[in-house]
Amino acid sequence: MTIDDKTRTELEAAVFRRLVEHLRSRSDVQNIDLMNLAGFCRNCLSNWLKEEADAKGAAMSKDESREASTACPTRPGSRPIRDSQPRAARGDEKGR
Questions:
Q1: How far is it, in rounded angstroms, from Cα 93 to Cα 96?
Q2: Cα separation of 28 and 24, whole Å?
Q3: pLDDT tens digits, 27-69
Q4: Cβ neighbours of residue 42 under 8 Å, at least 6 residues apart?
Q5: What is the rounded (10 degree) CA torsion for 30, 43, 13, 64?
Q6: Cα(83)–Cα(96) distance, rounded to whole angstroms?
Q7: What are the chain's domains?
Q8: Please, are residues 80 and 65 in contact by the beta-carbon 8 Å criterion?
Q9: What is the pLDDT of residue 70?
Q10: Which of 45, 48, 70, 95 has its CA 20 to 30 Å from the CA of residue 39?
């Protein structure tokens, strides 16, 4: 099957939107679980979106990319929302 570039881009965008919607609906799945099983998480998606926007010269802040890819708006000056697991359970050294 041959797909032209415009159609391929539209399909990829639709798949991305479905993936984001799926992850939004599965708030029971923690980022650490995604990272362990798939090698990426919601934060990765927002970082990739920001990197691609930067590469295209499109103005997008980290907060905007996070909100667009995770539906987690951040308050000005706030830190990103982290997993609800304690650090020790995430494997952070000494539970810090």
A1: 6
A2: 9
A3: 899 999 999 999 999 999 999 999 999 999 999 999 999 988 8
A4: 23, 31, 34, 69, 70, 72
A5: 120
A6: 14
A7: 5-72 (1.10.3340.10)
A8: no
A9: 78
A10: 95
3-state helix/strand/coil string of the chain: CCCCHHHHHHHHHHHHHHHHHHHHHCCCCCHHHHHHHHCCCHHHHHHHHHHHHHHHCCCCCHHHHHHHHHCCCCCCCCCCCCCCCCHHHHCCHHHC
Q: What is the pLDDT of residue 69?
A: 84
Q: Tell the burial category of 76 from Cβ atoms under 10 Å away from its Cβ (0-12, 13-18, 19+).
A: exposed
